[in-house]
Write a structure and sequence with these properties.
alpha+beta; five-stranded antiparallel beta sheet; 7% strand
Amino acid sequence: MTVRKAWIVAVAVGGAGVALVMLLVVGVYIVAGNLVNGVNGASKKLAKGAVPAAYQPLVQKWGNMCPAINPALLAAQLYQESGFNPKAQSPAQAQGIAQFIPGTWATHGIDGDGDGDRDVWDPNDAIPSAASYDCELASYVKDVPGDATKNMLAAYNAGAYAVIKYGGVPPYKETQNYVKTITTLEQSFAAPVGRVDPSEQAAGAIHYAQEKLGTLYLWGGNGTAEQGGRFDCSGLTKAAYESVGITLPRVANDQYNAGPHPSREELLPGDLVFFSDDLTNSRAIRHVGIYVGGGYMIDAPRPGAVIRFDPIDTPDYFGATRVTEDGAKALPATAGSGANRT
């Protein structure tokens, strides 16, 4: 019997479906228990497509400018600041892909591409300037005890004087949250150097999605009573993880950054799997489902279809994310660029 048929039979007999989900995921946990933990935050290799192709060479080059930063960390900062939008502007007049305010740009902006000007709206200048500014801050606090990267991030948020005064990350809640946010997001931009821990919430998320099998798709659907309990793809995955206490962003391309990225061979039940017509750019992701094992996912595929099992091994398969609670919490609420919800 194929995995697909086995799942369908399990769903048909109700409670047996839940038992199968639990057995599958618990079995995965037993196997995974002895695997190497997590993602190495110092990884210099970016995860596939995590940075839009137009900016990846810049992030890779300038992310190695000094020991306190790396490409994944620089990518995390750019994502948190602007969602890789070179035209972003905040109410506080922060500008461009790196969100420099005019006074900081005047002092710290550099001519990254050597064309004779310093343009805050040009990623070829703004991305090198962000890396340069990070490294300059790191040099200010280089003699402070503790982790050089965390001290640099703290200096970015609270100023170098505060880091020097307190001998490390200062006891300011905002600064401590900023340091944790960026270092957590860093993991979602770094290619894992070892196996990634399974999600403790995976079984519950799968069970939730399984209960929605056969529900008619609705564009923009969040499963509310007013919508007849219907979903689109990212609405389903968001609701599935909310059922186990993890809040994901609404759109698929931001959900991709909710944790580290296992390879196809390392997928476990509960991983989110993503699809795109541009395999070089996570910001172009247009579809997401929940992996259940055996090469299949539960997803809400398109208008006119119902929530169902679908194979993941298609030409538009982009990659996967192992959702973590910290990873989801680190995601900025406004970074999304309006990714398609299919």
